[in-house]
Specification:
By secondary structure, the protein is of the alpha+beta class. It has a three-stranded antiparallel beta sheet. A three-stranded antiparallel beta sheet has the order 7-8-9, sandwiched between helices. The protein is globular.
């Protein structure tokens, strides 16, 4: 399970965002999730360099956004800034464990090098400000095929706004910039939804975050090449395919 908020000061939120790993009758079919297998050089040609896999650095580094292992091309950054992203929000999105669009439940294209290194090849527009829990219409879980009930959606929204208030207050009070963890808030909070936070004036709310994956088993996946992925009907296209 994930998204458990435990705190003496916010005890009323205990149990919020605790998800049972049972199939929801309204969720997507439990078909294997396509996982794109390509080389690091092929991925670099798509605009993303993974340095730990031997790819040469591209012009725009994600180091200041918390991920020194990634850099992106001019072309990719232009595409996403035209959609309202900044380099910071793009880097946080690319560093997130996100398999499904939270608004539609459709599969997001991702390249996998290992269990711990998977990178999305596109992001929903509601990730543009790096606060998807706040700005997406979060009807679906991002890491498993699950559609939230109405009650769960309401609880999630309430939790999201409380975290937002605490993070913005922390950033303003401490006058910080750069990467920090949720533990830095010192509110007795444990919430595994967040990989890390970034305080930056480049982000409209003064901060953003990369998403952490679920704590349970990963959805069943199927290795495919890029051409096979592009033939899938119920998936989101890669960012390059959107420009064609």
């Amino acid at each position: 399970m994930k998204r458990v908020l435990v705190s003496p000061t916010v005890i009323s939120l205990a149990g919020v965002w605790v998800l049972a790993f049972l199939a929801n009758t309204q969720a997507q079919d439990d078909a294997p999730v396509p996982k794109i297998i390509i080389s690091a050089q092929e991925l670099r040609s798509l605009g993303i360099a993974v340095h730990s896999e031997g790819a040469e650095v591209l012009p725009h580094s994600c180091r200041d956004s918390g991920n020194a292992d990634l850099s992106v091309s001019d072309e990719m950054l232009r595409h996403f800034t035209a959609r309202g992203f900044s380099l910071e929000s793009l880097c946080l999105g690319l560093s997130s464990w996100v398999l499904f669009d939270p608004e539609t439940g459709r599969t997001i294209p991702r390249v996998a090098f290992s269990h711990n290194l998977e990178i999305p090849l596109n992001l929903p527009d509601c990730f543009r400000n790096a606060v998807p829990f706040l700005e997406c219409d979060n009807r679906y879980e991002t890491w498993e095929q699950y559609e939230f009930t109405e009650d769960e959606q309401k609880e999630n929204i309430e939790h999201t706004h409380k975290v937002d208030e605490m993070v913005r207050a922390y950033v303003e009070r401490e006058k910080i910039s750069g990467v920090f963890s949720i533990e830095a808030l010192r509110q007795g909070i444990f919430d595994s939804s967040f990989e890390w936070f970034l305080a930056s004036p480049a982000l409209p709310r003064g901060y953003g975050y990369a998403l952490h994956g679920g704590e349970g088993d990963d959805p069943e996946s199927e290795d495919v090449d890029l051409s096979t992925y592009r033939k899938e009907s119920a998936v989101i296209s890669t960012w390059q395919d959107e420009d064609r």
